[in-house]
Amino acid sequence: MSLVLALETSCDETAAAVLEGTSRVLADVVYSQIEEHAAYGGVVPEVASRSHLEALPSLLEETLTRSGKTLSEMDAFAATTGPGLAPALLVGANAGRGLAAGAGKPFLAINHIEGHLLSPFFGDPEIPPHVALVVSGGHTLLFDVTGFRDYKLLGRTLDDAAGEAFDKVAKLLGLGYPGGAAIERLAAQGDSNKIAFPRGMLESGDLDFSFSGMKTSVRYFLQKGFRPEDLPDICASFQEAVIEVLASKLTSAARTCGRSVATLSGGVSFNARLVERASELLAKHNIQLQVAKPALRTDNALMIAYVAALSLSFDKPMNTKTDISPNFDPLTFPN
Ligand code: KG4
Ligand code: ZN
Fold this sequence. Notes:
Helix content is 40%, strand content 19%. The protein is an alpha/beta fold. Helix 5 runs parallel beside helix 7 (212-223), helix 6 (180-187) crosses helix 8 (231-257) and helix 8 (231-257) runs parallel beside helix 9. The radius of gyration is 20 Å and the shape is globular. Residues 112, 116, 136, 266, 299 line the site of zinc ion.
């Protein structure tokens, strides 16, 4: 069974994990930088990079101590090499390469999106056929998955990512950064039928998404004036509009592809109303919803270690180049 140490530094979490085989977690440590970036209202790449560099030595020490293993016992080292913020990615990729060279073991370059994509199956030795919706602060991607390393992109956002739309609306409402969770909290006390925000591209006939018009319609609504007591209704109505599009398109995708399993992953899958609505729509067609467990919904290194472990166990061609690739490119996906 393989022993892998993985690093994740693509955005504002510095994370490391040690995984034995595809399921035995020996260590899983995440240092979040959210508070450092909150003052700027978003993630600042240079701040992220410096913070990753500062955090790495103690992160590695803590990870190794928890795992009870030494660097020389690892079979491989992995790191996220894209997509993400270039200066942030470089820190993890260079550290991973250095550790691998030092231990004389292979280095595996892992795609961050593939980490999110497979996280709902974490621990399983195989990936069943399914459709997957990856919804994070940076991406909204819908895939048909036949098995490990067999992915077809069905749809994606044409502008903002779903999480980005939550964050931008939260900013308009003065709720701070990141704003998805704050919107969900307020929405729980509001009436989602109060304001008819548009459901972007719900009837587009394809599986792409657009959230920027929804955000703009919230801005226009706010310009007409609102009272603090209107906030719960505004949040609930906006949240419902976004969720309706996500849940409907995930269901259409599963039906079109004839899949009996659908997944949600990425930070926006923390949203309980999204999970509830998606399982409701899918259940009407006997499609089962699988969501990553909470610790795997946000950025983490365990999902990166899992992809590395699967690629070792399936003996698939591995990407061992250490160049980073900051942009998501569906043509060369997963790497
Ligand atoms: O996956 P993630 O941690 O980072 C990226 O790789 O982008 O996702 C962060 C995103 C943020 O946009 C945040 O507002 C959103 O996930 N988010 C939520 C909720 N919790 C986090 N969006 C909606 N409802 C939530 N409860
Ligand atoms: Zn992510």
